Amino acid sequence: MKFHKAGSWLTAGLAALSIVSGCSESAETPANSTGNDSGAASGAEETVDIKVWGTNIGYKPIEKGSKLYEFYKEKLGVGVIHPYVEWNGGTNYLNQLNLKIAANEMPDLFLPQQGIEDSLAKNGAIADLTDLLPEYAPNLWNAIPQDMWNIVKANDPTGQGRIYYIPGMVDYGRYAGLIRQDWLDKLGLKMPTTQDEYVKVLEAFRDRDPNGNGQKDEIPTGGREEARWMDHLFAMYGVAMFEGYPDWDLYNGELTYSATTPNMKAALEFIAKLYKEGLIDKESLLNTKDKWDGKIQSDKVGNYFHWVETGYLPLENLYKNTGVKAEFSVLPVPKVDGFEGFYTWKKFTPPAWVVKNNKDEKKLMATLKLLNNMYDEKNWNDLYLGVEGMHHVVKDGKATRLPDDKSTQENLILDPYSKISTLDFMTELNKNTASEDRMWAIEQVNRNMQEAQQYAKVIAGDGMPASVYEGYPDINNRTLYVEYASKIILGQYPIDKFDEFVEKWNKSGGEEVTKRAGEWYAKVQK
Amino acid sequence: MQSHSLHRMKVYWPLYVMAVPGMLFLIVFKFIPLAGSVIAFKDYSVFRGFIDSPWVGFKHFGTLIHHPDFLRVFTNTLLLGGFKLFLVFPVPVLLALMINEIRKAALKKGIQTALYIPHFLSWVIIGGILFDFFSLSGLFNIILGWFGHDPVLGMQESSYFRPVFILASIWKDAGWGTVVYMAAISAIDPQLYESAMIDGASKFRQIRHITFPILLPTVLILFLLEIGNFLDLGFDPVYNLLTPMTYNVGDILDTYVFRTGIQQGQYSFATAVGLFQSVIGFAMVYTFNRISRKVSDGGLW
């Protein structure tokens, strides 16, 4: 089910009106009117408050004087005001952000969405960080490798090779297919390494009742609607696939959209075969996140694809629901003759922060100071743990994160550890902050994270800006691909229809997009 | 003439005062925003604002019409609009006539209430119910199973989409649609029925020659109003039932614009499509109103 709520676009004309009248000055306290509270580090110097916007999926806002405000002020020396803005998949956030920008109330530091940083940079609304970062935020500057900065420069929409956003970085392979090791052991099967072995394992999962409830209710593998989260089935054919979004990689030496390659055709043919034989969930293409997670967590699914580091969620929920302590292992990318398989790794996540082009020098400096201090690795543990009593407790000298509670916890908006993620840090974090009774799950996750690295490959299209799709929204949101892929998998279209898809894709803008992608790649290669 | 109307305004001034809030509402919320439609002819950018965004003429209309899938999207819209007009619209009329013939007051009220309930569910919920209804463990497949059929996942079959859409629309709103008709029926003079009965007219004849003809002007007006929304099917019902597998029969202007316009922040394009729908809707209302006045000396204006 899709829970988006959208107004009629007939009212889009209202946008202009609401920009004029709809955004009254918010109730937030204006900054730098303080100076009286002499807290910590800053001493006599007054603390500058800046407005920070980012993802908040329902936690409490950070208000002046609140616990988290004081915590950030003490740790980082800058006052952070973070109002609550409903996230709703980023759609509502983006609308609110657009309204604020139009009303000339842009936040000082914020997470951009869906490529709006492009037009912001073109209009001079966000700061050119090229010279500011090395000078005022060296910690941040050094935390991100030079070749990534080079790509950011190549992505400058003004074509001047300047830096306008701070990229997010994932320094390790985050994804893998995960398979029920305990089921394999129970059925006396060994870990599959080739496609034939993999199919045999799936058949055994289907037929030999590995969950032992006497019913043939096992789902060997599957995925979610729009052919997402079944990347492991595409991976063995070397299809660059990112959470179900076909991506760009080199095929025959050319940067190509993976959905239009022969690799994709072969993968779809294989998946259609699995579907026909009942080896992937019949409802795969209708599964919402809740439905698919529910199936995994009710001891029915043998193999799924997701973030390895959040693997404790299915493990713990499965245990809670059924009392089974499952064991998941990383599924090695099964070998297929003539193809080089891999799990897609993108070092770049979408832009993490942009900085307002502030006329107020004091605020701009405070923003850079905040960036510098928060990207200081020494602070990460503290930032992750948050406020004692609100986000974590200390028992016997060991700090443990408290369970999520949106009604009491303020939003930990400064999360450099997830915006520059390294494998070591995540592993340590898992180990150090989990309670004893969760260790069985955390240890599995940590082991799998190490294991997954050998199958991860950085794709050539990593870091490509969304602007290559400009003017071709249906190519950007891959409508055509999803339609054809779904129908081919279900057997509603024969595999020959794939060629028609490629032709249509090229005609409806794919050719132009490919050209732009090639130009971008040439620029990055320099 | 003018002095005459001025005189009437003086005499009936309380009525005019009472009309003021309604007029204000229309002006503020309907007429002023109409000016916003000009962004359909501009490249609207939030930085430049409403006035300074550059004029681009019919560019956005061209984009719409030259889109490779435009024909498919437009056909789907026309078909679903047509189905809605000719299959969904008449149902409340029939329902009202049927409910009117129920003689036991308690039963009548009970049935009416039961029919009204689905109207208060949002399409998101109805979509959820339908997806569950057609799931592997849903009622539909259980019943198919009794007859030894293999399960069918209805929501991912193109051939199911239109029937499901039509039946769901009827189920949701047909009951609610009877309200206006029931009101019109209750206003019919009982003497007409009495005299018809004395003349020996059967129940069916009474419906045919008394109830239906008196109801007809109401039906006509509602029909004309409905026709104005011909291309404007409403986003919710279709979007909540749509899957990529049913795009080929269910992708309509509204869902298309949501995907390519609203989600991508293309306000100008979205407005252009809205305007396109409205202009066609207006043309249809105007035409049918003329026809209606010719054949039945009644219409909207």
What's a concise summary of this model?
The complex is a heterodimer of chains A (526) and B (301). With 526 residues, chain A is α/β, with parallel strands linked by helices.
Describe this structure in words.
Chain A is an alpha/beta fold. Chain A has two domains: 37-169 and 350-401, D-Maltodextrin-Binding Protein, domain 2 (3-Layer(aba) Sandwich); 175-345 and 458-525, Periplasmic binding protein-like II (D-Maltodextrin-Binding Protein, domain 2, 3-Layer(aba) Sandwich). Helices cover 40% and strands 13% of the residues of chain A. Chain A has helices at residues 14-21, 67-76, 91-102, 116-122, 132-136, 138-143, 146-154, 181-186, 195-207, 231-235, 262-276, 289-296, 312-322, 361-374, 380-385, 416-419, 423-433, 439-452, 473-476, 479-490, 497-525; strands at residues 49-53, 79-81, 109-110, 166-170, 175-180, 219-221, 241-242, 245-246, 248-251, 254-257, 301-307, 328-330, 343-345, 348-355, 392-395, 398-401, 420-421, 456-458. Chain A is globular and about 70 Å long. The model of chain A is unreliable at 1-44 (pLDDT under 50). By secondary structure, chain B is mainly α. Chain B has a single domain (68-296), classed as MetI-like fold, CATH 1.10.3720.10. In chain B, helix 5 (70-88) packs parallel to helix 10, helix 10 (158-186) packs across helix 12 (203-228) and helix 12 runs antiparallel to helix 16 (267-296). Chain B starts with a helix and ends in a 5-residue tail after the last helix. Chains A and B meet through helix 1, helix 3, helix 19, helix 20 and helix 21 of A and helix 2, helix 8, helix 13, helix 15 and helix 16 of B.
Helix content of chain B: over 70%
End-to-end separation of chain A in angstroms reads: 45 Å
Low-pLDDT stretches of chain B: none
Rg of chain A, nearest Å: 25 Å
Cα(first) to Cα(last) distance of chain B is 22 Å
What's the number of extended β-strand segments of chain B? 0
Let me know the largest β-sheet of chain B: none
CATH architecture of chain B: Orthogonal Bundle
The secondary-structure class of chain A comes to alpha/beta
In the CATH scheme, the class of chain B would be Mainly Alpha
Principal-axis shape of chain A = globular
